[in-house]
Amino acid sequence: MTAPLHEPTAEAAPSAAEEAAVAGAGSKAVQGRSLGRIAWERLKRDKLALTGGVVVLVLVAIALLAPLITHLVGQDPEAHHEDLIDPLFGTPIGSLGGISGDHLLGVEPVSGRDIFARIVYGARISLLVGFLSAIVAVVIGTILGILAGFFGGWVDSLISRIMDGLLAFPQLLFIIALVSVMPNEMLGLTGTGVRLFVMILVIGFFGWPYIGRVVRGQTLSMREREYVEAARSLGAGRFYILFKELLPNLVAPIIVYTTMMIPTNILTEAALSFLGVGVKPPTASWGQMLSSAIDYYDSDPMYMVIPGVAIFITVLAFNLFGDGVRDALDPKGSR
Amino acid sequence: MLAYLIRRLFAAAVMLVVIVMVVFSIFFLIPKWAGVDIATSFVGKQADPSSVKAVAEKLGLNDPIYAQVWEFFKGIFVGRTYSAGGDVTNCSAPCFGYSFRSEQAIWPVLTDRFPVTLGLALGAAVLWLIFGLAAGVLSALKRGTLWDRGAMVVALAGVSLPIYFTGLLSLAVFSYGLGWLDAQYVPLEDSFTGWLGGMILPWITLAFLYAAMYARITRATMMEILGEDYIRTARAKGLRESVVIRKHAMRSTMTPILTMLGMDLGALIGGAILTETTFSLPGLGQAVLNAIKNQDLPVILGVTLITSLAVLIANLVVDVLYAVIDPRVRLA
């Protein structure tokens, strides 16, 4: 995380091919390898990171295919099954929270909604917020970070002050406040749509300074490099230098910080829904399931364990993969 | 040094004013832009216009925002006077106003709840520093061994577990299942052992998460520093390994750890919202969560100010401590 990536790192795929072609023309023994390829070869050797990556892919597939999966098991995430609930205690009939052939992970207390279907649909919410808010943070952070580092002067001081300020803000507090104060209808969205939209924007907004700082630092150290000077002396304009010369060299740190930001964002979304300001029932979300499980932690512990384990597996998979990507892209690492 | 402190304090004061203005904007401008009337939400949708007007009058919602912000700051330093329909209430400094909902004064609420959160944050910090740093340093020194792998697997699991899940699990197992600990919060002044018993689970749960984070960062930083030239120099001039580790490597490792500690401790002292909700601790975090759900602006403002102040002070202390730990840092 702290490893500085000073060297021009990630190269675009075509240039890698050219390099390989040039090297291949001379001799077969020495082959030029782009950092992208070196990183991929390192990543392939990292069993833990690969496992994490595979789990992430499976989760993405589950989220995308949620309607198909629930259709196959014949359950609906919002359908009630009150006949499966003990009318006296409100807990599911049967052992382990009512796990059966029909209800693979049991049913929720009181309503009897199918937990498997809700976990599958909950993956959509978690991943959607996790990915999109990371994209928001990356876009804002990269643009402002590169501008601050490249132009310096008052642009830099202004952007840096804003980043310091945002990092010192009580973030969770403001995210909760902003999400809860939003109206139920806006921009043509209603209810859950508004909440998701606002959560994505707000989580992304508080996340951009982390990327912004790294990008600014990298840009600062690169803008006086010879290759930038060379481009400038050839008559390249500012924006050509910014986007064609500097940005490609920032890809590696940006990828590293993005993969690390996604699990944090997933945890934030779950926390917001847990606190009752995020996604609300009947829409399924893991954090919201955990928060309803508080009342049943003694009578129906499975209801608490299942969404908790779902969050754990997801975040762990992203963290494993993120650690692997970081090590693979580290220019100081062994080849 | 003095000039540095004054500049930092001035920046902190500016930051606090900005934060208060942002809170005001969130609670006044966004509903206005969305077409929601705040006063209506206090009397209910069916209320007649006159009672809505009376509520708006009483809560001071009719004044322009800048006037409300000004009144708020004036209240903190010199106190303020409320007059609503003939009743005059004097609120002496530091006056944070009265809750929109319960009509209680805010300042006593804050002073009541602050010790709970402070105790939680400090107790957990002691635990996570001891275990996180020890695990991280040992892992870095014994890189690749069984201990290192084991510790890092536990740490990775630790940072991937949401605190409200580990908290609920520990409650279910130790409090309900085994009956070892009471899940009830007891104020420190009532009974020391009762307080200790109620705080052990929250401390351990909170410390587990942070110890995991700190162990990972400590290990990574330490390993990077052990590869530095000055460590080789220290070894080359014949220093004992224990001295190299303690006096050379540990010192540099502490710098990023200290930055994190400042931010984390500040954020936690301002309200460990998730931990307090999970364990039903009557701290600042719980108060602000309820206030946000009730749109109780004065309570939110009060807690936010304390939170921000805690973060800013913690960061300032950390920056001053840098100069003590790292001789290369000069405050100017």
Q: What general form of chain B does the structure show? A: globular
Order of helices and strands of chain B: HHHHEEHHHHHHHHH
The overall number of domains of chain A is 1
Q: What is the CATH level 1 assignment of the largest domain in chain B?
A: Mainly Alpha
Largest sheet: spatial strand order of chain B: 1-2
Radius of gyration of chain B: 24 Å
SSE sequence of chain A, one letter per element: HHHHHHHEEHHHHH
The whole-number mean of residue pLDDT values of chain A reads 79
Record keyword descriptors for this entry.
heterodimer, A: 335 residues, mainly alpha, 12 helices, 2 strands, disordered N terminus, B: 332 residues, MetI-like fold, 2 domains, 13 helices
Folded structure, characterized:
The complex is a heterodimer of chains A (about 325) and B (about 325). Chain A has helices at about 15-25, 35-45, 45-65, 65-75, 115-150, 155-170, 170-180, 190-220, 225-235, 240-275, 285-295, 300-330; strands at about 185, 190. Chain A has one domain: MetI-like fold (Orthogonal Bundle), CATH 1.10.3720. Chain A is built from twelve helices and two strands. In chain A, a hairpin with a 2-residue loop joins β1 (about 185) and β2. Chain B has two domains: about 1-95, no CATH class; about 105-330, Orthogonal Bundle (MetI-like fold). Chain B contains 13 helices and two strands, in the order ααααββααααααααα. In chain B, α6 crosses α8. The longest helix of chain B has about 35 residues, at about 105-140. The mean pLDDT of chain B is about 80. Chains A and B meet through α6, α7, α10, α11 and α12 of A and α1, α6, α7, α8 and α10 of B.
